[in-house]
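pinned: reference chain
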Amino acid sequence: MKTSYLRTFIEVVNLQSFSKAADKLCLTQPAITKQIKSLEKDFGIVLIIRTNDIILTKEGKEFYKYATTILNKEEELYAKFSKNNRDLSGKLTIYSSSLPANYLLDKILSDFLDKHNNINFHIKKTDSKDVYEKVISGVTNFGFTGMKLNKPNIESIEISKDQLVLALSTQRATSLPQGEISIKTLLEQDFIIRENGSATFKTFEEALKKKNYTLNNLKIKGIVGDNEIIKKMILRGVGVSVMSRLSIEKEINEGLITPLTIKDMDLQRSVYYIYHTKKYFTQIENKFREFLQKDGSTYLKY
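pinned: its structure tokens
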């Protein structure tokens, strides 16, 4: 039995697809099928019922647990005893929501790659909701999000603290109270909001609900899918928006955007590294998680 075949089996199960597993492992689909059949022949059992879906047999479910344990132990063995551990190389694929991707991962990866400079990375930016879906479905083992959800087998590490503020152009701010704005005045502003899936607006929406309001009570001027576009709209005087302070720190320091807190509204939040506790992690993924567990608190702000 080759442990690489166990890895193939795990990816097929996690991704619920032979073709997706083939793409991820850089193999052909016939090669994936051949490896699964080889495992079934070696052990004299059927692991997968071949229909339109990936359905594990009773033996297949047990086999998956053992395969995951074996590969995790193999990674631990290499991590502890391999003389080449310092020369760890390979690719780290990171799914991240907009905030950490745009304003945190540069620092995090720079620090990590200083210790492991033979590792390459690929950042795939999406929204927080999608990051959770990809971790749960097995597309990836971990990701970065702007919200924390209570999901089975998903753990999180707080990476950064953040505060949501009302962001408006410095010119527009001259006509409003300095430092803080009331909810009544807030509802009179022309708003540019992020589309569904944004952790920023989910946090804001929940805060509004606590005050018996919804997003429908806002004067919505436009809906945008990107923070940088929102900032440009704000600077042009098109409207205002609730934004992460981390995301507008540069513009605040340059005197272009003025942040206002919203009276009687708790808009503190955190950025998280989330990971699946029941999935097989590669040695690189393990090293990255260990790095964040040890040094992640150094990125906390506010």
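why pinned: The mean pLDDT is 90. Residues 47 and 60 are 4 Å apart (CA to CA).
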